[in-house]
Amino acid sequence: MRIARRADYRRMAWKNGQGLSEEIAAFPAGSDVDSFDWRLSIAHVGASGPFSVFAGVDRTIAVLDGAGMTLDLPGGERAELVAGGAPFSFSGDWEISSSNLGGPTVDLNIMTRRGRCTHEMRRLTLAPDESVLASHFAWVVFNAPATIEADGRELSIDRFDALSLDAGKSFVNRAETPAEILLVTVVPAA
Q: In whole angstroms, what is the distance from residue 80 CA to residue 75 CA?
């Protein structure tokens, strides 16, 4: 188990230069946007515009803050992402543009390089004393402050902090209120 504090995230411009990301973690360590096997980050979408293209990469995003956005997808399809809504998965090969719904949006992004890793992102609300057990290596991103117990220690978590869990490890929500989390599982390709 490792806690990644938001204050320590690496901040960087988007690949297309039109926004800012906070990198929670990437593998291998020290990799950049062209060499990661997987990358977990928080994106700040201040204005409508195009997404960066990541050839050979699978992506999933979920809105953390703000009204949300509409994505213009290939073939004339559209997808609306809203706060509290289900994560949305798509190919990084796609040329996509977004339109913010009522102002800036903050979202969580997981990207995995095809042939090296796969991923899954789920939004969960944990009741007090409810636990999460990682079936595979996973990151848990907290969308609100929380108090948890992990490895026999009670820990205070701030909004947007993240917890890494190895397969078979767990934590318990020790707050008196529900905790909204995004559980991101990363599995190496066979």
A: 16
